[in-house]
Amino acid sequence: MTCGSRRHRRRYGTAGSTFNGSHPAVLRVDPAGHPYAWLAWKDAVHYYSLGQVAWTVGDPSSVVLGGIGRDGEQTVLELHPVIAVRGTNASRLLTRVPALDKQILLARDRHTCLYCGERFPERHLTQDHVTPRSQGGGDTWTNLVAACKACNHRKANRTPEQAHMPLLAVPYEPNHAEALILAGRHILADQMEFLRALVPAGRRDRYLV
């Protein structure tokens, strides 16, 4: 963990950066270490330039080049995988149920139909109500699963028991840290390690780097 330092405001660009303009997302947390959200690199630069980064985790994951200073040297800003932003309080998010999101739900189920067990591209998967709405089923994490279109059609307006189509896994309600993992792309090792520590112990092995 590294403490951030106050910097002067500067305009940064991507020319000549170590990632040629393609920077990994930055994980924003509050000063107490509660995860908040993913940041695009430009948003992360904003917090660095305002001196609002309290501390960081991990070695720099990308470099952004800024303007030329009075000394003739180009300003270089290193972005870290995890940054704690002053003025952020995300403590309540870990106890709050994440909003339902199809992309996150399909990622939770590993893009696998929980009836036939086959993997599909996202466009070929649907969200199926385990207990149909007509039978009192609600729009909840534990009543929605990934299903291919064929299985969804076959199951129709029935429960798995009524349709003789048992679920291959039990749907679960992710916490905020899990939702961030499931929503992220190209998550860096330091970020995954940080978030996995906040996942219930029984599910951590689902999120190995």
Question: What features would you describe in this structure?
Answer:
The protein has 209 residues and is of the alpha+beta class. The chain is built from 6 helices and 10 strands, in the order ββββαββββαββαααα. The longest helix has 9 residues. The protein starts with a strand and ends in a 13-residue tail after the last helix.
Poorly predicted runs: 5-21
Give the biggest sheet. 5 strands, mixed
Shape summary: elongated
Strand arrangement in the largest pleated sheet: 1-5-8-3-4
Number of strands: 10
The CA-CA distance between the termini, in Å, is: 20 Å
On the 0-100 scale, what is the average pLDDT?
90
Number of H/I helices? 6
Helix content class? 10-25%
Question: Strand-and-helix sequence, N→C?
Answer: EEEEHEEEEHEEHHHH
Radius of gyration: 21 Å
Structural class label: alpha+beta
Strand content: 15-25%
